[in-house]
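Weekly sync notes, structure subgroup
Attendees: PM, AL, DS (notes)

Item 1: joint prediction request from the bench team. They want all two components modeled as one assembly rather than separately. Inputs as received:
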Amino acid sequence: MTGHPERRAALVDAGVDPVGTASNYFADRDDLLRQIDTRLHVRLAPDPDKFAELLSRPKDRSLVAAFMHDLMGRATHDRTGCLALLEMRLEATRRPELRASFTTSVRADLDEGIRFHREAGLPGGDETVTVLHLAMLGLLLEHLTPPGALEGVLPGVGVPEGLVERIVAAIVPMT
Amino acid sequence: MTGHPERRAALVDAGVDPVGTASNYFADRDDLLRQIDTRLHVRLAPDPDKFAELLSRPKDRSLVAAFMHDLMGRATHDRTGCLALLEMRLEATRRPELRASFTTSVRADLDEGIRFHREAGLPGGDETVTVLHLAMLGLLLEHLTPPGALEGVLPGVGVPEGLVERIVAAIVPMT
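Output from the run, pasted for the record:
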């Protein structure tokens, strides 16, 4: 686990693509899958400068929307990584060896979202953030698998950006 | 496709379990997967008598919650079927041969939800139903893959029933 971090990251990135059929490539893949999970969280993490700029804005509902657009932008920019995380949810459900670490990882994402929202002073309480998290997760799933399923579902509402706006408007109080 | 419908349903049910590793069992599985998708929609469909009883109640937000509890109950009762539908989303994303039919199937579920909500005179417009659909989809994903990730996220709120209540209360107008 020591040595050349960049080389290791490149090797793990190479593993992200075949995760759906990883059983064909790796005899014992639990450790590889855990490393891919960790690596995907790095790949999908927000840009610190972008986040610092967003946090300087007024703490109203439109700022929550800006954070959700940023999240959706990262997910669609690294669509392969996002699909790999979905594959791993199912893999962890099938394989007890992976379940504990992946359950911790999935839950940490939600807890981190709740903590961030609270500390940033954004509108809405923990329940708001939880419902928002679930709706964004559903949007990601429906938008990516299979692509195109949401096109035109609400006339005049773009996919996914317009739907992000509708989700935030429905769930988050204005201030 | 004719002959003994019950025998065919039993054969397709037998295919639901190994869908995650279907490539190990079936040389050409596109048609099997389409039949499984159709069959799962039958398995996961609401009970007509239950729905008729629900539709006789006042058309307020608590009725929307009752329908969402019914949906969640069907999904957790047939957890294997629900996981198979998630597997097929990913399979359809990888395989162009499956994508068109599965995109149509996924979209039909949402369109049917919008039509049902409108015709039943339930509170909230098409945007409400769309956001509710996405939040319930996210709840299903987070509740089932991996199981346990949501336990105790909101103190005193049961998983998944209490979260269903919070989703409906956050998204659906009272009347």
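Discussion: Chain A is about 70% helix and 0% strand.
Action: AL to compare against the crosslinking data before next sync.
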